[in-house]
Design goal:
6-stranded antiparallel sheet, two-stranded antiparallel sheet, Arc Repressor Mutant, subunit A, about 45% helix, Beta-Lactamase, globular, alpha+beta, 11 helices
């Protein structure tokens, strides 16, 4: 079961379980979920999970694929997303920025958003000889991705520690805990997210946060390519260049960022001051 969750307030347990199932469906949007696997991942019994997905399917928030009977996200999720156009506008505005980065550096460029205690990839462009595990829609604990760590580093130490602890209670991430510890230690030394082939051999990268007007790290941009591209002699220079890109993006797209209306995400809801 992802993350160590506090017990929901009385009367909202069913809502919390339904949200958990929806988020879990989104983790494997192409492969889909068998009912038993979905229940096990959510730490729910099969009967409870079936009642939830049956209701979600009736309401078109989920669907059961005819070919293999696996559950996947439903079309109503897309339709509801049209009610929050600012996020799509932000991703669309930054796509040319990512394309420029990917072409200039001959690499893959990513855009991530913070989503509570997790990070989610909302855009990916470019290519590399070795393909990363991350695709658009990939969601991981904050301390379970290079870009998430880039957003984690500017946060108060107490909040950092809570987010790092999330990885240890997230089964898929726990299996790679030594790799993520290496990424975190290296990232702290450099002041931005750095992966030196720690997860996928031969594939490395770096990521920097994008800050809102209040100094809160709500997003991150990252690049990935062959490990040789991120040699020690070049790493600091690339990191400084990416920081400048992130600062410029924050300044030039300030209006779009304000429209995202982040009230201060995360557990404590606090924003950082510059």
């Amino acid at each position: 079961m992802p993350a160590s969750r506090k017990h929901p307030p009385a009367g909202t347990q069913s809502i919390a379980r339904t949200i958990l199932v929806l988020k879990t469906l989104a983790l494997r949007k192409e492969i889909g979920w068998r009912l038993t696997d979905l229940a096990a991942h959510c730490n729910l019994d099969n009967a409870t999970t079936y009642r939830i997905v049956a209701c979600l399917t009736t309401e078109r928030l989920a669907q059961q694929r005819a070919s293999d009977r696996r559950y996947i996200p439903g079309p109503l999720l897309f339709e509801l997303a049209l009610a929050v156009p600012a996020y799509n506008a932000f991703a669309s505005a930054l796509r040319p920025e990512l394309l420029r980065l990917a072409r200039r550096l001959d690499c893959i460029a990513f855009l991530y958003l913070r989503s509570g205690n997790e990070s989610i990839c909302i855009e990916r462009v470019g290519s590399a000889p070795v393909q990363p595990l991350t695709v658009v829609g990939t969601r991981r604990p904050m301390a379970g991705s290079m870009a998430g760590m880039a957003m984690l580093l500017p946060l108060p130490r107490k909040e950092q520690q809570a987010l790092i602890a999330e990885v240890r209670s997230h089964p898929p991430m726990a299996e790679r805990a030594p790799s993520y510890r290496k990424i975190l230690q290296r990232s702290r030394r450099h002041g931005f997210g750095v992966n030196r082939g720690d997860v996928v051999p031969g594939l490395a990268g770096l990521a920097v946060p994008i800050m809102d007007a209040g100094g809160w790290p709500f997003a991150a941009i990252g690049i990935m390519g062959p490990t040789a591209m991120f040699a020690a002699a070049r790493l600091s220079r690339l990191g400084e260049s990416m920081r400048e890109e992130a600062y410029r993006i924050g300044r030039e797209h300030a209006g779009l960022i304000r429209d995202l209306q982040f009230p201060g995400d995360g557990k404590n809801g606090n924003k950082l001051k510059q």
